[in-house]
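Long-time lurker. I teach an intro course on protein structure, and each term I like to show students one example going from raw sequence to a predicted 3D structure in token notation. This year I'd like something fresh instead of my usual example. Would anyone be willing to generate the tokens for the chain below so I can use it in lecture? Attribution to the forum is fine with me.
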Amino acid sequence: MLTVAVLISGTGSNLRALLDAAADPSYPARIVVVGADREAEGLAHAEAYGIPSFTVPWHEHESREAWAAEVDAQLRVWNPDLVVLSGLMRLLPPSFVAGWAPHLINTHPAHLPEFPGAHAVRDALAAGATQTGASVIVVDDGVDTGPILAQERIDVLPGDTEHSLHERIKPVERRLLIDVVRRIAEGSLALDAARAASPS
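-- Reply from a regular --
Happy to contribute to a lecture. Here you go:
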């Protein structure tokens, strides 16, 4: 059984989708802990499912490295097989990434390498793109530059706003994430191989 930790900043919609999937006895992964960088709304999902959680407030640490070191210490208590970033709005320092890679994955609301960064949906609309998408990647030291594990195209419709387009992307992100975690757990998706195959 693959053990998973999830790190969040907000409402935790991807977290909730993973918790729902893991509630099925046939799903080969279990979430063992949820962490947040603030008193995030999504921690309520962990509580509802009886999953332990921790909070490491960003503002209480003098540097990104000090904050990440405390997050790392909390995760090491549980020693998960996989860490999922689920809307965590913090750039993790290289020391943290090196400690968990390649067992550190993230979702992104674009068809990478198109539109990396924090405003992917807005950027797609500003560029006049006719399609965008959703991706699941291995986290590396860049901004959304890690090996791509799964992705899917999504049409940009006439009249789309940032909100309407993002709302259509989210369910695809969740589905891709649930499938990627399943494939990692079943051994049909090897994260070490994905990293080795990624261009340096």
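Some talking points for your students: Helices lie at 13-22, 43-48, 64-78, 94-100, 120-126, 162-186, 191-197. The chain has one domain: 2-107+137-153+171-197.
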